[in-house]
Structure prediction request, 504 residues.
Amino acid sequence: MVDMSAVLVRGSERALYEQITDMLRHQLTSGLAKGDQLPTEAELVERFATSRATVRRAMQQLVDEGVLTRRRGKGTFLARPMPKVVHPIDRVMPFMETFKQVGEDVHTKLIHFGWEESPVLPEALNGWDRPVLTFQRLYVSRGVPHAVTSVIVPRRIGRMFSHADVEKNPIYHMLQKKAKVTPVRAEFLVSCRQPTPQLSEVLEMSRSSLLLVLERISRDAEGHPVEYSTHFLRPDVYQLSVAIDDLPSRRS
Amino acid sequence: MVDMSAVLVRGSERALYEQITDMLRHQLTSGLAKGDQLPTEAELVERFATSRATVRRAMQQLVDEGVLTRRRGKGTFLARPMPKVVHPIDRVMPFMETFKQVGEDVHTKLIHFGWEESPVLPEALNGWDRPVLTFQRLYVSRGVPHAVTSVIVPRRIGRMFSHADVEKNPIYHMLQKKAKVTPVRAEFLVSCRQPTPQLSEVLEMSRSSLLLVLERISRDAEGHPVEYSTHFLRPDVYQLSVAIDDLPSRRS
DNA sequence: GAGTGGTCTAGACCACTGG
DNA sequence: CAGTGGTCTAGACCACTCA
Prediction:
């Protein structure tokens, strides 16, 4: 429950909705509301003696931060806390493994599989033969989706993969067993991006918050790129780690 | 200017404020509003024949995305576009260098310098002698702040650094020239975080959007950690790149 | 003082979930 | 059906900027 003793200060420097956000945040984290459901908007309007718009604005802030989730017709709930996961990108480890190491169940679902004639690709992949095979997997733990990975491979490799293969196996497994290619080098790019409407849908996140995006180009021994994958990660769940030995000597 | 011909569809699946956001975004990027200032809220209310709250909600979305900035008493403006910068973390390169490579002027400002008795540090740094020296630098280009770096070093190294040193030199330069230590290994952690109130202030960003955060622990040849730095990066500006050779063989 | 964006109110109608 | 959150309206007052 939410403490009623605290009172809003009208005419303060701090806006009413900010004061409400602060109070809710504090009381949620200090365990006063261990349960799932929060008071309804109508109740909060009464307790804080403000308008509904002000209460909503305060709650929206916490929704954007991932602390709360709201469902029309049901109510407002403490977002199910997700484990913090550190994914090492300097080793070849499927995301499944990263999650299992923290004792999590992970379910994957293939949400796209198809050939594409004119994909948008990084410059480094201009030499690939078309069409390319592209597929997307969704990762879910405790009923909560937390990552989408999109993989693209050139035609000569993609033709070795069946729908059933892709549904079950990590990409590096398929590259080695099915396509008989061994990645020996990978280039990574980390960035933050707005989710597309589709991604915000399947990852159940607000369209205004950001995704942590990890792109990877893997190359075989000859330096030819053999796969291009993009990982869309919920930033409240994932961290990425890298260790670099033998730091090159300074230049300038 | 904003095109008046497009019309909102009332009763559509898509909310009015979303339609307005879409139209503004499209017309801004398609060059119809090359200038700086957008129509005022009052003008948009008239053109779209909606309430002010709806127009504001549409614009707020673009402000959160960093497309627009609003200033009370002045108006709403296209946010000054910042260059996209890729910072390689597998080489030792100061941020200054990264920016200069894209032809940017960069100014730095020391915004904090002091000793701290009880800092919060990663476990790996528990062995450090206290107090630790901590300082923060703000990076500004084209008058727009885009990064804050916070550096912490143990007492035995920090005592070699003067305020003037820190104001002018990259950390790795000081480690080698002043403290006579050479980092040979570094561990990185990449994450997304809410800015603190102080960070959202100096980086001029909304408190509800996320920062790209890069943490680094550098070690000398004996494996002792010699510095811990945290880089708070505006996600609309920075990307991080890593290349890994000799991918380890698969495990499971 | 006129004009800007920042906050807040008190309503309204709707779509969705549940009993 | 009553109750939830999602959207929208038409006002109001304020702090700030600039002429």
Observations:
- Residues 85-241 of chain A form a domain with the Chorismate lyase fold (CATH 3.40.1410.10).
- Chain A is about 25% helix and 30% strand.
- Chain A touches chain B through 46 residues (CB under 8 Å).
- The longest helix of chain A spans residues 16-29.
